[in-house]
Amino acid sequence: MAMPRGYREGAQHDFAFVDSIADSPKRVQARIDDANELIEKTPQLEETITPAARMFYYAKSTMAEVEEGRGAVDTLQLAKKIERMNAQEQWYRRCRQMPTVGIEIEVPVEFLDTSDVALLEQLEIPGEYEDPSDLYEVNPVYTYSPWPQARIVQSLAELNMLPIARDGKIREDKTLSLHINFGVPKELSEHDDLGFDMSKLPESYLLANAMAIGFGPTRRLAERKTIHMLHYKNDAKESSKNRVYNEDEEFASSAMRFEVRATEFRDFPTYRLLAEGQLVAAAMFASFEVEHIKYVYNETEQMALAWKECESTIKQHLHEADIQLRDIDGRSEDVWNVIGSMKNTNIQNEMRKAIHNCAQKVSTILEIPTSFSNR
Residues 121, 123, 50, CA angle at the centre, nearest 5°? Predict the structure, then answer.
């Protein structure tokens, strides 16, 4: 993650000016008004990315004032980036096989005070105080593309709402718990007669293991508050991909999400995890569809095969490291076995490689434009 553009080496309180700008109601409202004006001018802007686009503009215009001292901002350049983000969102929305993605990130209140929370509310970025109240969970609305979620996290850093060290990374003494949610396709969640519970399938734990071990530092596994490393929940926000109807063609509220809970926000690999994790989750869901639903698309079958290869690779490396599926789950002392393996073997890199290789295959199968591979 790059440091905010206003950062200068050696300045103890270099972000104080950013905070003082945020504390000015007139300036805050002026930036929000400018952001809303730009959003209104963006052709066919997807509703799901409006908060991310608004926050992106607000953060960049704030940093421009810090850097230039006169509120200079390249509106044309920002408009182009928002249009690109919108094109990505539209493509991902149309791609049936890609699940929605969302995040929940817990921020220490020492870095996100009440004025910051008020600003996030104005920018329409949802959140709530955790119990204990020394943490505030930023919980943006789901998106179809992973990149608006990444933009929001980057904007939090640029607005000095995250504990950033001088090397541009999250401070080593701070833990930012990150939960990642993938929307379960309606083809799976609308069938009550499939005869299986996704929360108990070993495939679900294999993917959660790979994500936690590959992208979560050992401290996160040792200190996490949540008992279970994954959840399937029936409280997902309604989207065009999980909207479920009953036999009378009436909406039935049973949309599901797959939540991976044993990860942490750290630096660039987290952005990579959002994008690649979504692709691999899509492949795993495709495998479920092939196994339990009669009619599937050709791409679904190809994605299922990509997942099976990934699954085999993950199993092999977990076996070699003597890690069992449930070692990270619950309050088991076996988590220390996982931590030891992460410190003494190459298991972390192997999990990242397995996820990356599967994601690349799925991207090729779905013909995702190469221009969408980064923010």
Answer: 130
| Amino acid at residue number 27 | R
287: left (phi over 0), alpha (psi -120 to 50) or beta: alpha
CB-based contact 148:123 (threshold 8 Å)? no
Q: What is the largest CA-CA distance in the chain?
A: 66
Q: Phi, psi (5° rounding) for residue 340?
A: -65, -40
| Residues contacting residue 61 through CB under 8 Å, at least 6 positions apart | 31, 34, 35, 71, 73, 78
Which long-range CB contacts under 8 A does 341-344 form with residues at least 24 apart?
A: 342/213, 342/218, 342/221, 343/218
For residues 204 and 149, what is the distance between their CA atoms, to the nearest angstrom? 23
H and E: helices and strands count for the chain? 13, 6
Indicate the pTM of the whole model: 0.85
Q: How far apart are CA 143 and CA 363, in angstroms?
A: 18
Closest CA to 273 of 211, 361, 220, 362: 211
- Least confident interval from 143-157, 249-263, 265-279, 340-354: 249-263
Label residues 272-311 b or e (16+ Cβ within 10 Å = b).
Answer: bbbbbbbbbbbbbbbbbbbebeeebeebbebbbbbbbebb
To 10 degrees, the CA torsion angle through 220, 223, 228, 231? Answer: -50
The token pair at 303 is 């994605």
Length of the chain: 375
Say how far apart CA 156 and CA 236 lie, in whole Å.
Answer: 24
> For the CA atoms of 229, 155, 42, 277, what is the dihedral angle to 10 degrees?
-30
Residue 107 pairs in a beta bridge with 136
- Classify residue 211 by its DSSP letter: H
Name the percent of the chain lying above pLDDT 70. Answer: 71
**What's at 130, amino acid-wise?**
E
Contact status, residue 303 vs residue 286, Cβ threshold 8 Å: yes
The CA distance from 186 to 188, in Å, is 5
Of 199 and 65, the one with more pLDDT: 65
Read off the tokens for 156: 């939090």
